[in-house]
């Protein structure tokens, strides 16, 4: 079976209003002459376009999906939050939380974004497709049960997980979040549960500030089932591979999931305006290849990725293509035109060694090394 690609053009019609990077226009903040809010549609549209023009699109199984229902949303979100979001959306837009503006109709588009993830989760688990990449927008990994946050309006992955459990019964699901920002929303949804392993690799103290520390390991039954891996800014390619070796892979082996879901933020790349991690397309290729192989060993190959952040229009497509190529087991003629200089700009060996020592210490403290 081919790798499936879940996409709906309407997801790119979600609007965040008139902003500059993350701040609303007004006062001394001049309206933008070009790109406005960081979470615009162009990075996703360019990724979809590169998938097509590279030739990889012809080898993928392109799929759409229905929106999630209100009842499916309510397995994760409070009724009060959903009522507020829906009312603001119908009234022309607003902001239902922290740094999460939206326009008219975004409630329905967010339901569609979550629906794409839900359908992919079901299809991968039931082996209707081999694996999948979901070009979901708006993203979801910051969204809390009772509030939006960080451009995220619905918790796409948690909604999809609970929909699958309602359909298939109890399951052990692992979420590996390699978005450069802490996956606080997914963490909050499952913090007191032992059936979901949540792993977040993120730039330390980036967003949300002060969250995502190593001491946050879960609560009650969930103690030990949340793993935060904060990385020093500028860590680069090797730091991600070290984190995979020392923490992510041992945690997945110990948990033995029935399904692995990747929260595929591509904003750890060196050009991203909202982070400083110095990763490149081969970083994401290595991560995807290793996790794909691990899924084959642990859960019959059941793995999919749901798109999250990534705000460098010119570079996100090369990172995303590398992930999808890895899942599909194909390599297109596309060469990353920025890879040479980004490889030369990687951090020095002593910094990489210092970062690795931190990861080794964390692995010991988490009982993984």
Describe this protein with a few key phrases.
single chain, 369 residues, alpha/beta, Arginase, Chain A, eight-stranded parallel sheet, two-stranded antiparallel sheet, 11 helices, globular
What can you tell me about this protein's structure?
This protein is of the alpha/beta class and 369 residues long. It has a single domain (4-18, 33-365), classed as Arginase, Chain A (3-Layer(aba) Sandwich). The chain is 38% helix and 14% strand. The protein has 11 helices and 14 strands. The chain has an 8-stranded parallel β-sheet, with helices on both faces. The chain has a two-stranded antiparallel sheet with strand order 2-3. Helix 1 packs across helix 9 and helix 4 crosses helix 5. The longest helix is centred in the N-terminal third of the chain and has 20 residues, at 106-125. The protein is globular and about 50 Å long. 54% of the residues are buried. The model has no long low-confidence stretch (mean pLDDT 97).
What is the count of DSSP helices, taking H or I runs of 4+ residues? 11
Element order: H for helix, E for strand: EEEHEHHEEEHEEHEHEEHEHEHHH
Poorly predicted runs are: none
- What is the CATH architecture term? 3-Layer(aba) Sandwich
Structural class: alpha/beta
Task: Work out the strand percent.
Answer: 5-15%
Organism: Neotabrizicola shimadae
Domain Histone deacetylase: 41-316
Pfam families: Hist_deacetyl
InterPro entries: HDACs, His_deacetylse_dom, His_deacetylse_dom_sf, Ureohydrolase_dom_sf
